[in-house]
Amino acid sequence: MHGRADVIVHRKNGRQRVDYFHRSPLRIFMPENHSGNVESEIVLANTSGGLVGGDELQVNVVMGEGTRSVITSQAAEKAYRANGADTIIETNLKLDAGSRLRWVPQETILFDGVRLRRRTVLDVDGQAVAIAGELLVFGRSASGEGFTRGLVHDEWRVKFGGKMAWADNLHLAGDVARQMESPHGFDQAKAMATLLYVSKDALERVDCVKSLIRTDRCRSGATLIGNVVIARWLGRDPAEVRRAYAGFIANFASALGWTDKGLPAIWSV
């Protein structure tokens, strides 16, 4: 299975437009905008119902000058146990001057024995703003299934103003039970969320992020590297991590003074 989705958001004759291409099993949907916001809402769906070894997905997004969009997924992505071949996901997000993107897909659930390699490249112009995040769930705690073995290689590469601003690799391989259980590792966590704020005013926003990220639901923290604010959540209850993560996104958008607040409605379905 080799799915692909290309999205180009641009302005023409004073109006924002979205051009897209999709190849099965990826599909692109655009809910009707009744709020009056200028932000385009774009929903990605994997019609196969999940990912198995050998599957490859590629998503490419280009935000033209002065455009605004929020992109999410239709539902949680399920990455199933693999029998040998890796599952590959590549995401490329490019923001031109004056554009704004919120990349907030729903969680990826990692089944025991999964083999997932994912790479996300975020290329942000010096006059653009990006909020981008991912939420990982380790195993299926509701079914009593943990995450004890497999491969997860999750990369972030962030450029700002044409220069590398932040790089991060999460690599779990083989018998990962010890890493998941160790108090010096994941400390029995069942979910982890990461959210980035990339902008020229990142320094002015980091204290706001640190204030809003505080929660009793799970462990959390934030830091600043150049023009990138990195926030993370780690917890033993995936629902609580999701709730803290989603609540922060809504509150942070409000703190930024954006009129298109919160998460897309599909997050509540």
Q: Number of helical runs?
A: 3
First and last CA, distance: 27 Å
Overall, the morphology is: globular
Strand content bin: over 45%
Rg value: 18 Å
Count of the domains: 1
* Main sheet properties: 10 strands, mixed
Approximately how much helix is present in the residues?
10-25%
Count of beta strands: 17
Outline the low-pLDDT stretches.
Answer: none
The sequence of SSEs as H and E is EEEEEEEEEEEEEEHEHEEH
- What structural class do helix, strand and pairing data support? mainly beta
- pLDDT average, as an integer? 94
Brief write-up:
The protein has 269 residues and is mainly beta. Helices cover 13% and strands 49% of the residues.
How does this model look, in words?
With 269 residues, the protein is mainly beta. The chain has one domain. 13% of the residues lie in helices and 49% in strands. The chain has helices at 177-181, 202-212, 238-255; strands spanning 2-12, 15-23, 26-29, 40-46, 56-63, 68-73, 77-79, 87-95, 100-103, 108-110, 115-124, 129-138, 149-160, 163-175, 191-198, 219-225, 228-235. Strands 3, 4, 6, 7, 9, 10, 12, 15, 16 and 17 form a 10-stranded mixed beta sheet that branches. The chain has a 7-stranded mixed beta sheet with strand order 2-1-5-8-11-13-14. The radius of gyration is 18 Å and the shape is globular. The chain starts with a strand and ends in a 14-residue tail after the last helix. The mean pLDDT is 94.
